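hey so i finally got around to running the thing on that chain from the lab meeting. sorry it took forever, my laptop kept dying and i had to restart like 3 times. anyway pasting the input first so we r on the same page abt which one it is
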Amino acid sequence: MTHEPGKYRKIMEISGTELLGLSLSAPLAQYETVYSLPMESISMSKGTGVVTSVPSDSPDDYAMLRDL
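ok and heres what got predicted. didnt touch it at all, straight out
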């Protein structure tokens, strides 16, 4: 959804640790606010490193939430 497909204008640079604990708006979520939490079991070498967490359906997600 950019003027030129695949072309993005960088507006700021932040590290992932600066996002931890922030309340965020997720347009397609059923909740008005979601929170960014750390998750050690994802690979930072592929993709963005941003994932959803569903502790009710995933034992790994539940373990990471419990360990916070």
